[in-house]
Amino acid sequence: MPADRELIVYVIIVGSGRLGSGLARVLSSEGNDVAVVDLPLDNRRLGPSFDGLVIEGNPIDADALENAGIRKADFFIAATADDNVNAAAIQMAKGVYNVPIAIARISDPEKEDFYRKLGFDTVCPTTSGMNQILDYVRDRTFSSLQATIDPSTICVLPRQEWIGNRLRTIRMPHGRKIVALVRQGKIHGYEEGISVRSDDSIVLARVGKE
């Protein structure tokens, strides 16, 4: 722990995927006390340098959360790949255990808006990635975009069979969802009436398991 650090916080992270493990490693390396809860638990992503507590258990199971020390937690971060699990987890953290700060990763922008209206603190990697793309689009043409965006969001050229079809009618492979369309340097949301053209770019988000 750095000698000049005045505050150590106790953080519980549910989810041991890329985001959860990354947060756990950084927060632990900064001298904080960190517990990770997941089922199954991916110790490989946490790495050998992580010296926090690891609990293999259901992130919304009271016993698992108790074993992780939720009653003394200062922060609770729900970072699994399942939006519903994350929402349920922070409801428990705030409503049952009165954790001061509880944040949920919500990948679906529509769900994020719903949970925010209920008063939950959320972070949406899909929206963050789209906003980064939009910042670049405003400054230069989209074809010159060379930004490092959240890996859960990618941009692809349309397949031949997509051209002429509306976004909502296009079936995506399991684990991917269309969230926006880029046309002539402008980003269009997931609108019912918009149809794909050959010179468009399609913004996809990863959904489901990491």
List the helices and strands and how they pair.
Elements: E1 10-14, H1 18-29, E2 33-38, H2 43-46, E3 53-56, H3 62-67, E4 75-78, H4 83-95, E5 101-105, H5 109-117, E6 121-123, H6 125-139, E7 153-156, E8 176-183, E9 186-189, E10 201-206
Parallel strand pairs: 1-2, 1-4, 2-3, 4-5, 5-6
Antiparallel strand pairs: 7-10, 8-9, 8-10
Molecular structure report:
The chain has 210 residues and is an alpha/beta fold. It folds into two domains: 10-123, Rossmann fold (3-Layer(aba) Sandwich); 138-206, Alpha-Beta Plaits. It has six helices and ten strands. The strands form two sheets. Strands 3-2-1-4-5-6 form a six-stranded parallel sheet, sandwiched between helices. A hairpin with a 2-residue loop joins strand 8 and strand 9 (186-189). The longest helix is centred in the middle third of the chain and has 15 residues, at 125-139. The protein is elongated, with a radius of gyration of 19 Å. The model is unreliable at 1-5 and 140-149 (pLDDT under 50).
From the 3D coordinates, which CATH architecture of the largest domain would you assign?
3-Layer(aba) Sandwich
| Strand arrangement across the biggest beta sheet | 3-2-1-4-5-6
Distance between the first and last residues' Cα = 31 Å
Oligomer: single chain
User: What structural class do the secondary elements suggest?
Assistant: alpha/beta
CATH class membership of the largest domain: Alpha Beta
**How many strands appear in the DSSP assignment?**
10
β-sheet strand percentage: 15-25%
CATH topology of the largest domain: Rossmann fold
- Summed over residues and divided by their number, the pLDDT gives a mean of 81
The rough form would be described as elongated
Task: Give a short account of the largest sheet.
Answer: 6 strands, parallel
> For the CA atoms, what is the radius of gyration?
19 Å
> How many separate domains?
2
Estimated helix fraction: 25-40%
Residue windows where pLDDT falls under 50 for at least 5 positions: 1-5, 140-149
Tell me the series of helices and strands, N- to C-terminal.
EHEHEHEHEHEHEEEE
- The CATH homologous superfamily of the largest domain is called NAD(P)-binding Rossmann-like Domain
